[in-house]
Design goal:
Layout: H1 2-28, H2 48-84, H3 97-109, H4 120-135, H5 148-153, H6 162-170, H7 183-206
Helix pairs in contact: 1-2, 1-7, 2-4, 2-7
């Protein structure tokens, strides 16, 4: 069921994003209806606004898909605990839900997430980016930015704007970057979630009751 969910998210992103990717392609290749006629009124490239809107549309779509993927991950872990008949882990001071589940799985099932062979850093970035998407908006702006914890933990987050990261590297500083969900970033996140959950299932079958 988890794989079905993740595959649906991937197909949904591809289908819903197609008009935006096609608009970007046509603008960059100067294809109709994005062919400039006459002299430009300013120094901006033609159809810059349309290009920016298509890019941001893809970003917002990717953000929505990442939130769906993160929910699928959490649903999987909740279902795992429910099947075992145990109570859900309570968060300790300073813990995220992800930290609480990781501690709980080691204590209750003997499943060490660090031994799954999966990059837990990417999973943590998925959770942090989801929180940013839900809570770290700017007034009167669609942009979402990293919060303090995300910035400190992952200054080179795969879900942070490459342009922002390049600018901050130039000035040798770490500042919150815009959340930017590229097709590559989303695909990596979906793959990591699937690999992780598969390993948890495998470890769960081997763990003592």
């Amino acid at each position: 069921m988890l794989r079905d969910k993740l595959n649906f998210i991937h197909r949904f992103y591809e289908a819903a994003g197609q008009p935006f990717t096609e608009a970007i392609r046509k603008i960059e290749n100067h294809e109709e209806p994005y062919v400039a006629h006459g002299e430009p009124l300013n120094d901006e490239p033609p159809f810059l606004t349309e290009w920016q809107e298509a890019k941001e549309s893809l970003n917002i779509l990717g953000q929505s898909c990442l939130c769906l993927a993160q929910t699928s991950l959490k649903d999987f872990l909740v279902a795992f605990v429910e099947r075992s008949g145990k109570n859900f882990p309570a968060k300790e001071r300073g813990e995220s839900w992800f930290d609480a589940f990781q501690r709980f799985f080691l204590k209750e099932y003997g499943i060490d997430w660090t031994k799954t062979g999966v990059d837990l850093g990417v999973l943590e970035q998925i959770n942090l980016a989801r929180n940013d998407i839900q809570h770290e908006g700017r007034p009167y702006d669609l942009a979402r930015v990293q919060d303090k914890r995300h910035t400190q933990r992952f200054p080179n987050s795969i879900f942070a704007s490459e342009l922002d990261k390049a600018i901050f590297r130039e000035f040798s500083t770490h500042q919150p970057c815009r959340i930017d969900l590229t097709p590559e970033g989303l695909a990596q996140g979906l793959e990591i979630i699937e690999q992780f959950c598969l390993r948890i299932e495998e470890h769960g079958k081997q763990a003592p009751a």
